Amino acid sequence: MAETIDQTFVLIKHFILNWAQAFLPDWTIVFLSILISVTAIAIFGPVTMMYLTLMERKLVGRIQNRYGPNRVGFWGLLQPIADGVKMLTKEDIVPAGADKFAHFLAPVVIVIPALLIFSVIPFGRGMIAVDLSIGILFFLALSSTTTIWIFVASWGSRNKFSLLGGMRSVAQMISYEIPMVLSIVPVLIVVGSFSTVAIVEAQSGWNWFVFTPWGIVGFLIFFLTGVAEVNRTPFDLPEGESEIVAGFHTEYSGMKFALFYMAEFMNTFSISAIVATAYLGGWQGPWLPSWAWFFIKTYALIFVMMWFRGTFPRLRVDQLMGFAWKFLLPLTLVNLLVAGIWTQFDTPKNYVVTISILGIAIMVLYWANRPEMPKKRTYRYAYADK
Amino acid sequence: MEYTLKDTPALETQTLEVSLGPQHPSTHGVFRMNVTLDGETILKLKPVMGYLHRNHEKLAENMSWLGSMPYTDRLDYICSMTNNFAYALAVEKLAGLQVPERAQYIRVIMAELTRLVNHTLLIGFLLNDLGAFFTPVLYAFREREKILDLFEAVAGSRMMCNYFRFGGVKVDVTSDFIPRVRQIINKYPKFLDEFEKLLSENEILMARCQNVGVLPKELAINAGISGPMLRASGVPYDVRKVDGYSIYNRFKFRVPIGEKGDVYDRYYIRILEMRESINILDQAIKEIPDGEFITKEGGVGARSPRNFKPPKGEAYGRIEAPKGELGFYLVSDGTMKPYRYHVRAPSFINLTVLEDMCLGQKVADAIIILGSIDIVLGEVDR
């Protein structure tokens, strides 16, 4: 029974294929199999996005002492659909001086990589669209292409705020790409494969990578850079509302804006999913079915991202760059070394060595960055005696 | 601070001129900054104001003395009580009116409550400018509501109170007023602690605010800056202490002083000032006597404003408004209308040093510097 629940979605697919086999020629079955996976992802992505918006609004609402949307449907559950209808029926405005082709193309294309990433995410045991042998590489390559379309959008809008947002976006994405790629390399070293399935399988039982010294550091860096990659608070400079109005999507309205939003939220989901896969053991876990574990971990990470949004102010451009280059990058390099050492020693010894190296590295980095760190202040009073 | 394009040689670059405002999410109204940028660095900043100009001073010169009292509410629409206070003070000086004891205490209580409202709200909006997604603002609003409820119970209006009269206040406070104020001041320190826990030692807030938008002491004095901004720059100047107007010299309170004069100091000074305001309120509600809330003369003036004619002369009444020194300069020619009516608006004068603070900083800094000045466009443009 447990096995059946665990494999529900796989079994449904197999059931459809077996049923179709009765009257379809054999060669179409392959296409049908692909079609089912693609349809599942193409529906799952946007629906996830819709309900992530609701989740974010509800959560941030709770953080801020209010209810969030609760008028449309029970508990506001139909709110995303109402929003979708609103977006679809809104006027589509193209600025007079805009590069019309670029302005149109950017929001359309930006959704594609966001959707494609879903194909290498292992949603559960056996629940992966394509088990690419270069899964992680595929993910990294696709997620970095988003930058190009953000810049195309900002350039095509012919708006100065957009342009500023686009420039910030490019600078930020390039800076954070490097620690992001390097922070996942330790996993690849230890597992010895790029395949996401292999990574999850290497963490069976409670051997999640996050419980190792290099794993916790890698997890934190990967998660932080992931937050930066998807432009969420406190790294939401490309669309910093209070500074540059809406950044790269200032000049977008209606469905085009919705597509940007969709890409952002789908990226949020896929980043959380990849972090969960690489460091939190993916679908590994006791008692519950594998896909349930996967979603619990992914949504926990998304929750943390939304929690950030409700709590933190935004960083400044130079501080953002400084954080990436002066702190994260050296730390990821050390972490790389540590992961290499980890594989060469036996269990009690490797903990001692890696923890001490990481401890020293963090202390050195902290000390080196200290001049730029803010200090607590005390204040004096005038007329204190009266 | 000087910053030129020559500092980045070799690469040929162009400056970018951006008009921040009048429609912009963080200009606190219809204010505009014409900014010249090199990348993200500000080379030049020109404030453009006047979008909300509505002839406040000339209007006041064409109506009775009391007639412009409700208009003063609309100057700094967040602190209508202190605007009333300053105007009433100036007219009382001109007409030589006395204010009964109870009214004095009510006035001080209202002014300090207004200070709480203003500073709480300002910090909320400053954090919004910093990019915190509305959480501090909504926490600030929650506390502000409690005080506004109190204003509503007493004056009949939440924001546009129009509560002060020459020689007193409009009506006596309700019987549950003092207990309600006590409730607020008992809970406020707890709220401030919570607020500070969320904000003051937040690494990002400190990194963003410290050493940004530094206003040197000398410049602050020369430019006529007043209020928390001046004190953040290290000048211990508080009109409540210097003038001791109304009954402020009876209360024990301290004046917090900043060191650097940057955005963080301006932020923190306001938190400390709120704590002092709570002190004043605590003393005021303990000492408030019974008695009349307006003098007989003032009562007549309030009922028939056309008969209220201050003698010939001029007067300048000033108070320590939450935003700085708010002054009303009035000239009377002995008729029912002011001959000259001038407002020394703290927001406006504090705004004059905006460019000096912003040069060489990033765009994002300009926004928080503007936020830390604490302007309300109703007062800037008048």
Chain-wise SSE layout:
The complex is a heterodimer of chains A (386) and B (382).
Chain A: H1 2-6, H2 8-21, H3 26-63, H4 79-89, H5 100-117, H6 135-157, H7 160-191, H8 196-201, H9 213-229, H10 241-244, H11 254-279, H12 290-311, H13 317-344, H14 347-369, E1 380-382
Helix pairs in contact in A: 2-3, 3-4, 3-11, 3-12, 4-11, 5-6, 5-11, 6-7, 7-9, 7-13, 9-11, 9-13, 11-12, 13-14
Chain B: E1 16-20, E2 32-38, E3 41-48, H1 56-60, H2 69-73, H3 80-95, H4 101-130, H5 135-155, E4 164-165, E5 168-169, H6 177-199, H7 203-209, H8 217-222, H9 228-232, H10 239-242, E6 255-257, H11 263-287, H12 296-303, E7 313-321, E8 324-332, E9 338-344, H13 346-351, H14 354-358, H15 363-373, H16 377-381
Helix pairs in contact in B: 3-4, 4-5, 4-11, 4-15, 5-6, 6-11
Lateral strand order in the biggest sheet of chain B: 1-2-3
Q: Write the H/E string of chain A, N to C.
A: HHHHHHHHHHHHHHE
The computed structural class of chain B is alpha+beta
Question: How many separate domains of chain A?
Answer: 1
**What share of the residues of chain B lie within helices?**
40-55%
Q: What integer is the average pLDDT of chain A?
A: 85
**Overall outline of chain A:** globular
* Helix/strand/pairing category of chain A: mainly alpha
Distance between the termini of chain A: 78 Å
| Number of β-strand runs of chain B | 9
Largest interface: A-B, 44 and 52 residues
